Amino acid sequence: MTTLDPNAVLWSVPPAERAGRPLLVLLHGYGSNEEDLFGLVPHLPEAFVVASVRAPLSPRFPMPGYSWFTIDGVEGRDPDEVQASADAVLAFIDEVGGDAPLVGLLGFSQGGVISLQALRTRPHGIAFAVNLAGYAFPEPVPSDVELADVKPPVFWGRGALDPVIPQPFIEHTAQWLPEHVDLSGRVYPGLAHAVSAEELHDVHVFLAKQLEA
């Protein structure tokens, strides 16, 4: 069973300040670690308790860091690994979520894939997802029908010059997301496989709206 390391989590506030507050879980990209997205915390609404977690797998040598699933060639992805990592994130939320009135996910690249996969797996348990420079995994999930009925909010941001994500995945996501979620987001001219200040501003606005809702 795939699990997340509870000792490899960075929290924005100590335990005494987490009760009754909304929870936002950060999911880093391929070959990175829990420290990567934690630098976004000052740019996110202060109302959230933020937990930045470490992916459970090690990428293939010589790539450093951690991964959510194995990348095999341009488009090769193991659906079992994708789902196992999404389930591990949900198990982590069950463990630490406590009385959080709102739980959302924010992922970059591979982490963006897992943020959507977890949302698809539990449409009524995850309030929203932010997918930065990622995509929706093309393998169907049994609860996709339920997801389309719930239509939770999703922000999808990506760079127009992103050379990393295969175009077929982008095309699939552009068609799939509006059919299943309440979609907002932008394509940022001049941006590659990264996050810009403009995109962070848009993410902040999106997250603030989730708090209001």
From TrEMBL:
Phospholipase/carboxylesterase/thioesterase domain: residues covered: 16-209
Source organism, top-level taxon: Bacteria
Record's keyword terms, sorted: Hydrolase
Pfam families per the UniProt record, alphabetical: Abhydrolase_2
Repressor as UniProt keyword: no
Keyword Ligase: no
InterPro entries, per the entry: AB_hydrolase_fold (IPR029058), LYPA1-2/EST-like (IPR050565), PLipase/COase/thioEstase (IPR003140)
Listed Gene3D superfamilies: alpha/beta hydrolase
Family named by the database record: Belongs to the AB hydrolase superfamily. AB hydrolase 2 family.
Name under which the protein is recorded: Esterase
Organism of this sequence: Microbacterium dauci
